[in-house]
Design goal:
By secondary structure, the chain is an alpha/beta fold. It folds into two domains: 2-146 and 284-309, Response regulator (Rossmann fold), CATH 3.40.50; 148-282 and 320-341, Rossmann fold, CATH 3.40.50. The chain contains ten helices and 15 strands. It has helices spanning 57-72, 87-99, 113-122, 148-162, 177-193, 216-228, 242-251, 284-296, 321-324, 327-341, and strands spanning 2-8, 15-21, 30-34, 42-46, 75-79, 105-107, 128-131, 141-146, 167-174, 198-205, 233-237, 255-260, 276-282, 303-307, 314-316. Strands 3-5-4-6-7-8-14 form a seven-stranded mixed sheet, sandwiched between helices. The chain has a six-stranded mixed sheet with strand order 10-9-11-12-13-15, sandwiched between helices. The protein has a two-stranded antiparallel sheet with strand order 1-2. Belongs to the BMP lipoprotein family.
């Protein structure tokens, strides 16, 4: 059994494949991309469940690393997770990235919290970033967190306004406190906009099973079940699994709402883009870029760095022309956004 490590250069047309043996027998990969590297600075990200190509969370993190490569002339590395891995695997991955001289080293997702806590203590001169977790703290740890519930509230407003069946759906990948923030905001946005609209909520898996973030078939089946119950708008916060729900909604001629990245513009979802009403975006790309830049500038970020509606850290994408033409919907969304920023609406973080 072998592990495949992929090395890619940005802008190049070829990739070199290096094979290394592994004892665990699971497949993982790492991408290394260079764009100048004039100062020898290096940064790395370690992907969450689903890995690169999820059209969502992980791809957003890579976009930030890629921007840093181009704009800051650093060398970037990205390491893939393996199937069913334990914290020990994450510790080894982060340790290898830190030993290689990467600074910062960024864990994409709350699952990296235990590993970052241990590895950051061993490399005090290296800055570690963790996305979506504020529980582990140290002088050299930056907690990149988002007000997901605020963006989800706006999605709820839009869903309630466009629904004709008065039934909409929410699909969470894995039932964790983080994903419950998405659910809570969405449900509140729907109810505040139209109390007559029913919200169907479902989670794909329960911890410690995180397949709900990585298996599109699970998302597709859940969405089909909600469609059968007359849902005509489905919002999925489920990483790669969410692509299955988008497919199901599109084939049924109903609306889907994407998450994390602007999924209307994701190449892997181009077949279904016309059915993606909007997406709840998290500016993961800028959070990654900003952390890398802070280290390069000699003023590394640390502690909680929060991104909300007030800083455009979360929001709704407006790439679909069909969405932007819905003036009453856009008006309701803009009004809700301003009221959240002004403190007139407080969005719940639990359903």
């Amino acid at each position: 059994m072998r592990r495949i490590t992929r090395i890619v250069t940005v802008g190049a047309t070829t990739a070199a494949l290096a094979l290394t043996a592994t004892a665990c027998g699971n497949k993982s990969s790492s991408d290394t991309a260079s764009s100048g590297d004039s100062a020898g600075a290096k940064a790395a990200i370690a992907y969450d469940v689903g890995g690169r190509g999820d059209q969502s969370f992980n791809d957003a993190a890579f976009a930030g690393l890629e921007k840093a490569q181009k704009d800051l002339k650093i060398k970037g590395s990205a390491a893939e997770p393996s199937d069913g891995e334990a914290d020990a695997d994450k510790i080894q991955r982060l340790t290898e990235l830190a030993r290689a001289g990467n600074n910062p080293v960024i864990g994409v997702g709350f699952a990296y919290a235990p590993a970052i806590k241990k590895v950051a203590a061993k490399f005090p001169k290296t800055t570690f970033g963790i996305i979506d977790d504020a529980s582990v703290t140290d002088k050299n740890i930056a907690n990149l967190v988002f007000n997901e519930e605020q963006g989800s509230y706006l999605a709820g407003v839009a869903a309630a306004k466009v629904s004709k069946s008065k039934t909409v759906g929410f699909i969470g990948g894995v039932e964790t406190p983080l994903i419950k923030k998405f659910e809570a905001g969405f449900e509140q946005g729907v109810t505040d906009t139209d109390p007559k609209v029913k919200v169907l909520s479902q989670y794909l898996t329960q911890p410690p099973n995180f397949d709900g973030f990585s298996k599109p078939d699970l998302g597709k089946a859940a969405a089909q079940g909600q469609l059968d119950k007359k849902a005509d708008v489905i919002y999925a916060a489920a990483g790669l699994a969410g692509s299955g729900s988008i497919e199901a909604a599109a084939k049924a001629g109903k609306w889907a709402i994407g998450v994390d990245s602007d999924q209307y513009n994701q190449k892997g979802l181009a077949t279904y883009k016309d059915s993606i009403l909007t997406s709840v975006t998290k500016d993961v790309a800028d959070s990654v870029f900003n952390l890398i830049k802070s280290v390069q500038d000699g003023k590394p970020q640390s502690g909680e760095i929060r991104y909300g509606l007030d800083k455009d850290g979360v929001g709704l994408a407006d790439s679909n022309p069909a969405f932007t033409k819905m003036t009453d919907v856009i008006g309701a969304v803009d009004k809700a956004k301003q009221e959240i920023i002004d403190g007139k609406i407080t969005v719940k973080t639990t359903p």
